[in-house]
């Protein structure tokens, strides 16, 4: 092999080693930064289904390779995240209810499914005899259903409702809360009081009477067309219950880029192969020229 070929191959090897070392250092810096800053949000990533679930501060990630399970013992809530090999919403929710040891045959609260649809998500709400409530968020992707099931042991019910007008005053907040109560099958509930929590009129609190019992509701504007609503028993609802809205909106499925990776590897190694082929051809041509020169030299002598 000629000196030029050796130098070229050495440079290629050095570049490869530098790239690998740089990637390892960058990964190490990311891990060190994440450990140093406890406020950085982390995600549960399913090993095969590629979906990602946000783990908010205060929530415990129960490690599981089959599905996501987040717990917050302070508010008595759990969030299950899973994939169902079906595009039928009811079948997908039934699988989630089974994971949570809840009755699979439970009927959702009295709401039209279209009324609870927003963006790519559909919602189902459930109430059980032991003060346990559940809200299921379902979306379809590539022939599968992705489910986030929020289960509360204290009868707290989160809900995202569509609004005809942006949430901006008491009237629009009351209309959004009425829609939520109707979706929960509580159209006879009485809104006792409602007031704004901020001067921007994007957050409201309300007291509600449901079946003679006092409940509290929080209403927050998320966009011009949706409102986040939490309804729970007693005089207040823990703010941690609102984490489910962040979990739902930050949920994402990592695209399957395996084919692009294979294509990139084929192109990379193909180019390297062509380069090595040109080196071999150059060497053969040089050897041929060298042999010709030797022959001419000998004939001249």
Provide structural commentary.
With 301 residues, the chain is of the alpha+beta class. The protein folds into two domains: 39-156 and 239-253, Mog1/PsbP, alpha/beta/alpha sandwich (Protein Transport Mog1p, Chain A, 3-Layer(aba) Sandwich), CATH 3.40.1000.10; 159-237, no CATH class. 36% of the residues lie in helices and 29% in strands. It has five helices and 14 strands. The strands form three sheets. A six-stranded antiparallel sheet has the order 3-4-5-8-7-6, with helices on one face. It has a five-stranded antiparallel sheet with strand order 9-13-12-11-10, covered by helices on one side. It has a three-stranded antiparallel sheet with strand order 1-2-14. A hairpin with a 4-residue loop joins β4 and β5. The two termini are 29 Å apart. The model is unreliable at 29-37 (pLDDT under 50).
Briefly characterize the structure.
The chain is built from 5 helices and 14 strands.
SSE blueprint:
Elements: H1 3-36, E1 42-45, E2 51-55, E3 60-61, E4 68-72, E5 77-84, H2 89-99, E6 122-127, E7 133-141, E8 144-152, E9 157-162, H3 170-183, E10 190-196, E11 203-210, E12 213-221, E13 226-233, H4 243-249, E14 252-253, H5 258-300
Antiparallel strand pairs: 1-2, 2-14, 3-4, 4-5, 5-8, 6-7, 7-8, 9-13, 10-11, 11-12, 12-13
């Amino acid at each position: 092999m000629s000196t030029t070929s050796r130098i070229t191959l050495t440079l290629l090897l050095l570049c490869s080693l530098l790239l690998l070392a740089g990637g390892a250092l960058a990964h190490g810096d990311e891990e060190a930064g994440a450990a140093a800053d406890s406020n950085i949000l982390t995600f549960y990533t399913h090993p095969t289904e590629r979906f990602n679930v946000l783990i908010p501060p205060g929530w415990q990630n129960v490690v599981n390779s089959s599905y996501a399970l987040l717990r917050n013992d302070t508010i008595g809530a759990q969030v299950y995240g899973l994939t169902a090999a079906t595009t039928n919403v009811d079948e997908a929710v039934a699988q989630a209810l089974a994971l949570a040891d809840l009755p699979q045959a439970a009927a959702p609260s009295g709401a039209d499914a279209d009324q609870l649809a927003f963006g790519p998500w559909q919602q189902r709400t459930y109430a059980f005899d032991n003060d346990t409530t559940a809200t299921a968020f379902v979306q379809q992707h590539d022939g599968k259903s992705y489910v986030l099931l929020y289960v509360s042991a204290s009868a707290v019910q989160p809900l995202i409702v569509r609004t005809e007008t942006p949430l901006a005053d008491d009237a629009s907040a009351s209309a959004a809360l009425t829609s939520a109560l109707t979706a929960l099958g509580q159209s006879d509930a009485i809104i006792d009081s409602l007031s704004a929590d901020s001067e921007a009129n994007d957050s409201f609190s309300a007291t509600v009477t449901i079946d003679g019992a006092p409940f509290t509701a929080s209403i927050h504007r998320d966009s011009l067309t949706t409102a986040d609503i939490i309804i729970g028993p007693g005089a207040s609802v823990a703010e941690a219950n609102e984490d489910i809205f962040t979990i739902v909106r930050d949920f994402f499925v990592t695209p399957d880029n395996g084919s692009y990776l294979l294509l990139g590897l084929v192109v990379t190694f193909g180019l390297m192969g062509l380069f090595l082929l040109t080196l071999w051809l150059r060497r053969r041509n040089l050897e041929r020229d060298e042999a010709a020169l030797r022959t001419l030299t000998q004939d001249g002598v």
